[in-house]
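1st attempt posting a full record on here, be nice pls
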Amino acid sequence: MDYKVKLNELLLTCARQGASDLHIAVGRKPILRVDGFLLPLEKEEVLTPEAAEGLVLAMLSEKQKEIFSKDRQVDLSLPFEDKARFRVNVYFQRGYMSAALRLIPAQAKTIEDLGLPSIFHDFAKARQGFILVVGPAGQGKSTTLAALLDEINHTRTEHIVSVEDPVEYLFVQDKSIVSQREIGTDTPSFHDGLRSVLRQDPDVIMIGEMRDRESIGMAMTAAETGHLVFSTLHTNSASQTVDRIIDSFPADQQSQVTSQLASTLLAIVSQRLVPRVDGGRVPATEIMIVNPAIRNLIREKKIFQIDLVIETSVQEGMMTLNRALAGLVMKKEISLENAEAHSLNPSELRILLERT
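the predicted structure (as tokens):
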């Protein structure tokens, strides 16, 4: 079998069916994720170890094969017919080669296309500070960041520098210069890429994911020195994100980090993609905008009180996740069952809906 041809067939099927992901694993048919649900491709054969290996190796360059052989996993981006790209992680499980491929459309969507609140336009106008998009894996964080960066690209004359592993959305430069640096191709490591980014005269910096204490520290330093910094974290809420950032540092550094975070943080968006009643998915977002009250709570380490400020600051553009979910239920865009499944406090959500 020509595995490159077969791989292209599977990628085309993924794109045509509007899937977000393609999974390749031994003992299963290739599986798509569509609107959050895993669906086997029934017309395909169950993958043998030889077939899975052939499909995986068809994705890799010689250099990537060397890394895969050494590290037993590798991240890469895979272009597809100039129409889309795939973010790929290939790995071993039970000794067999496997792969997870995330479909990245060729063009970033706009804030309106994604159905995000209008306050996001204000985030794209910011000049200095630290903005985070957080949430579990697969909830559209990278897509939201791409929409923000592309709006800056089309409306401002800036130098945007991203450090990504791998590069996902490709931006067509407009008013801004856009420099996208991929780990392993353009810079040896995340740490090397982040250490050198301030020497590249950036105005806006996007860090694909803050993976450790060093990347968090560099992001805050960049924000503190006059840059607008965007990044992501795998956390569930704004308050949990603040805790996670502070707790990632040793106790003797936490006081300084707390002060630095309070002075640089602009906003945290926690995002979930919820299945629509009529198909597709819609974002539900908790939005924390850092006002004087929240800055004081961070400085005083009263993080547990942040949720109350978000709840009582709707007029400033803030939004709790439950209010966002309740609004989508009231508009009949999502079901109550799916709203509860994505809520961090379903009982509070039900009370909220009973009052409205």
